[in-house]
Predict the 3D structure of the following.
Amino acid sequence: MAPLSSSRLRVWRYYKVGVINTLFGYGVYALLLSIGLNMYAAQIIGHIIGVFFNYFTYSRHVFQDAAASKLRFIISYILNYAIGLVFLAICAIILPSPYLAGLLALVITSIINFLVLRRYVFASGPHAVPLPRPAVVSENIDHASFR
């Protein structure tokens, strides 16, 4: 059997770690539901706890050779939460169980999350999107143009 290329190996590691992260996140969500929390409260608490767990697992086991941006990671998970909330609301309309609604919403958002993490958070290689550079005010302003 031929060895996996580095990009295929990264995808393989992402999905292995992703299963662990998904089980952890869904486990927290289900546990909070089982103790009586509203499904939206359970989702936000589970999401916040999951952010810390996921950063650790992805940065250590999947994207260890890439430069991680903690700020981008936090922003991506804020977006991920908003997307997940929308999908949870939609799934709750379609599915009678909050457990199934949460699971389906989690699957959908995890696919989106992989793309965001790979392209924007753990940026390396040709697929990376560079960080925008802050504007720098030049001290060498030509004052003659203001007269």
User: Anything to note?
Assistant: Residues 131-147 have pLDDT under 50 and may be disordered.
